[in-house]
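Q: Convert this sequence to structure tokens.
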Amino acid sequence: MNSSTITHMEAQLDGGMSEQIVIGLIALSTDVVTEYELRKMLPSDGVSISATRIKTQNPLTIENLRGHAHEIAEAADLFIPRESVNVFAYGCTSGSALISQNVLEAELHRTVPGAKLTSPMTGAYKAFTQLGITKISMLTPYPDEVTEAMIDCLAQAGITVVSCGSFHIENDYEIINVTPESIIAAGEAINSADVEALFIPCTGLRTSTVIDSLEARIGKPVITAHQAMLWDALRLAGYPQPLSGFGKLFTV
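A:
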């Protein structure tokens, strides 16, 4: 076949994805959970996720987590055209606790000047403020070194971890195997009368199906990594509607 036998057709063009809010997810190379979880919580009217990856190293150590910072710019630069993404989301809770929002934004702006950025911890801090929360119980999957660093970071932000539990898993690709049922049981076990909310960090945990159930059982808000990051991303992108089925946070 040569070009003389190809019929050229006239395409009708519209705005393409311009009417969609696009969240540019920067996920970890070991993460097969975040897109799955976020899409379960996405509103059905005009919000989508487009993802890329950054390399992450195991085991989970503070040094390896801080190494994510310099890769943010290169990951964001892969989205072309740049204006196609409304807000970027760096999908690592412990990384976003150890690397400040200012540093993450500075790295992002090396290749995408002025771009909006959220993360699980950025969203969580805003969620605590929105809900008036200063005392929490926290359930992590991390080794003690990382959990202790998380407690310190929260304390610096004015959040007191009154009680804490951990599944103590050193490799993040194993965290995805933690069952939702064990998250519920552990979340209930560390609840106490003097905490105002339960915080479940880590984007490797499957939490979207347990938020409402846990809130009903403990009678307090439940803030999770995916939920807080998505809530903040939608706010930054100008999506105004509340969502049902994923905790009190999405209704305020």
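The longest strand covers residues 21-28.
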